[in-house]
Amino acid sequence: MKTLYSNSFLFVWLAPFLLLFGSCDSFVDVELPGSQLSSPTVFQDYSTANAALTDIYSKIRDRGLLTGNVSGLSSQLGNYTDELVPYGMPSNTSFNFYYNTLLPTTPEMADYWNATYNQIYAANALIEGVTVSTGLTPVQKDQLSGEALFIRALSHFYLVNLYGDIPYITHTDYKSNSLVTRMPAEKVYQQIISDLLESEQKLGTNYSNSQRIRPNRYVVKALLSRTYLYAGLYAEAANEASALLNQTGLYHLEDLNNVFLIHSSETIWQLQSADVGQNTQEGQHFIFESGPPPSVALSQNLVQSFSGDDQRLSAWIKSVSDGTSVWYHAYKYKEQEYTPVSIEYSVVFRLAEQYLIRAEARANQGDLIGAKEDLNKIRNRADLKNTIAVSKEEILQAILLERKWELFTEHGHRFFDLKRFGELDSQLSPVKPGWKTTARLFPLPQSELSTNPNLRPQNAGY
Predict the structure, then answer these.
(1) Could you give the CA distance from residue 391 to residue 304 in angstroms, rounded to a whole number?
(2) Residue pair 21/121 in contact by the 8 Å Cβ criterion
């Protein structure tokens, strides 16, 4: 029995459309014979157009940057920074991230790039198909294209933070895509914001499903607030976070043990599992019951940084011992196996981050009282006392530390935070073997540089 993101029924309905974006290994390799172009009939009926969109979500869940398995950012950026330590056989791909030995030819670099640009390509194909459709109502067109714009913005957001200057792809024309050049990161942020503002206008405030698996206007605001923060637009970041935090009837902080449950009121947006009764890939990957760990474990650096009074230490981290050694694993998601019904989905945006975004934005604007109020919301939920930070710099450092404790193993926040605060070198050089300043960006895939010289030069250090 399959869930909404299932692919099983899609192939029968959408074979021409899926061929459009499912057969390409590279986003520049998208030329297809005319017989494989997306069928106009896909977008004449809401059910098939909607199925095409849900298929993109399934691809985001299963492959690329946001997947919860070993290849996703939650794991690999944890290894890349100071959250995780890899174990197991030398073939474990996490060792390249842990030892900072990534190369332009490392398969994961091309996989991240290609999977994400294929998802962008699929979103663009849907936007184009919906725009010219004569069978969809204006409301249906807005919902479908609004979600696709959000997907496009989200995908480019992660790419620019990993690779730096990147192409921003907004169409499906293979000729121009094959010769595309990189856009400066500042302009990428501008385009992300433009897409999100348009998406916000198209989407309503209601969720289409009680499980919050499809974006609404507040999901867009969650990404907008993060994007504004990363771009240094602090007033805008605080305003977007406030607009979301003010929706107290829809969102509120949960007890620590309930944060990652399917019906948590802290969840803003989550990715549905593939099957009924299936839980998260994060739970399958991070949890282990005997040592040594089969894949990854939390670093001693992270575990020992928690205060003994911090309830996240007991609620979100679990120890495993063989009688001699002790290891720790992330225990935010507590289900490793199937259950009669799914209990946990993979959370992409949640309310705690919005408090921390607003705290950081407020501190950077000089609103130190407001910043501390937001920071203390997260601290108090973990049973910690109010922060003793006083100055702007002290408060910002307290926020950075709080984000370390609150958001570990969640889609690479730690890496992005240290980069944004300018502390990658100071914090990682003492604890990471092989760390170098140029590791702030991933290498561009060599396969892409060879196919399209316009993407050159390679990022520094590679």
Answers:
(1) 26
(2) yes
Cα distance between residue 1 and residue 165, in whole Å: 42
Q: C-alpha angle with apex 323: 322 to 325, nearest 5 degrees? A: 70
Q: Which residue has the tokens 């973990």?
A: 382
Mean pLDDT over the full length of the chain: 92
pLDDT classification of 39: cutoffs 50, 70, 90: low
DSSP state of 273: P
Structure tokens at 92: 């474990």
Q: Are strands 326-330 and 296-298 parallel, antiparallel or unpaired?
A: unpaired
How many Å is the Cα radius of gyration of the chain? 22
pLDDT tens digits, one per residue of 344-370: 999 999 999 999 999 999 999 999 999
Residue type present at position 394: E
Q: How far apart are CA 353 and CA 350, in angstroms?
A: 6
- Distance between CA atoms of residues 394 and 180, nearest Å: 43
Q: What's the longest Cα–Cα distance across the chain?
A: 68
Those residues whose C-beta lies under 8 Å from the C-beta of residue 453, and which sit 6 or more positions away, are: none
**Residue (of 345, 267, 334, 311) closest to 68 by Cα position:** 345
- Specify the residue for token string 């299936």: 278
